[in-house]
């Protein structure tokens, strides 16, 4: 089985069949992988509707719903992660890392990155996970070999309207402090080279992954690197 590349600072998307597993590998040991999932098919006629009659947003893996379903701020082996409709998306089935992952942090996006003084010297733009998601979905749409998958993915892209759901931040180490304030810190991943997690798809999915480009904090050990993934049927 050959591993597929998630290039440093970039994103990729892949179709994963129901009950297949996706293994996400921390190749260098200090790389966070922001991860999203969108169930297929994406049919507007099956969506719950808002009171004004317009279609609700597309279905996606939701961190706020998953925290409630897991009764935990972190995923763990045996946990089920769910969508914004509280339907199962992933079962967290294997983890060789210390189990430190994050469900709280939003993905960085262009305007946030522009406000970091450290990046102004780089011309203002910096790769970011939000852009990486949308680029990866567009690339997957362009390369889809199955007409049905392509149609479903086009509905997802159109339905998102540029919105970026909060990702599952695999290997991300965001410890929270005790006390009433509940402050959090940004720290280096505790995983080691080759650590991986396996997520079992509970439905047909398109899964997007971004090798987090953050190089101004210790989130990726200060140096974003490649990561890899495998699909296990």
Please specify the SSE layout and strand pairing.
Elements: E1 4-6, E2 11-16, E3 21-26, E4 33-39, H1 63-70, E5 80-82, E6 88-95, H2 110-114, H3 117-120, H4 129-143, H5 147-160, E7 168-170, E8 195-201, E9 205-211, E10 227-232
Antiparallel strand pairs: 1-10, 2-9, 3-8, 3-10, 4-7, 4-9, 5-6, 6-8
Helix pairs in contact: 4-5
Detailed description of the structure:
A hairpin with a 5-residue loop joins strand 5 (about 80) and strand 6 (about 90-95). The strands form two sheets. This protein has a six-stranded antiparallel sheet. A four-stranded antiparallel sheet has the order 2-9-4-7, with helices on one face. The protein has helices at about 65-70, 110-115, 115-120, 130-145, 145-160; strands at about 5, 10-15, 20-25, 35-40, 80, 90-95, 170, 195-200, 205-210, 225-230. The chain starts with a strand and ends with a strand. With about 230 residues, the protein is an alpha+beta fold. The protein is built from five helices and ten strands. It is globular.
Would you summarize the structure shown here?
The chain has five helices and ten strands, in the order E-E-E-E-H-E-E-H-H-H-H-E-E-E-E. With 233 residues, the protein is of the alpha+beta class. Helix 4 runs antiparallel to helix 5.
Distance between the termini: 11 Å
- Tally of strands: 10
The low-pLDDT segments are none
Q: Structural class per helix/strand content?
A: alpha+beta
Biggest beta-sheet profile: 6 strands, antiparallel
Which descriptor suits the 3D outline? globular
- Strand proportion, as a percent range, falls in 15-25%
Radius of gyration: 17 Å
Order of helices and strands: EEEEHEEHHHHEEEE
Helix content: 10-25%
Report the mean per-residue pLDDT as an integer. Answer: 88
Major beta sheet, strand line-up: 1-10-3-8-6-5
The DSSP helix count reads: 5
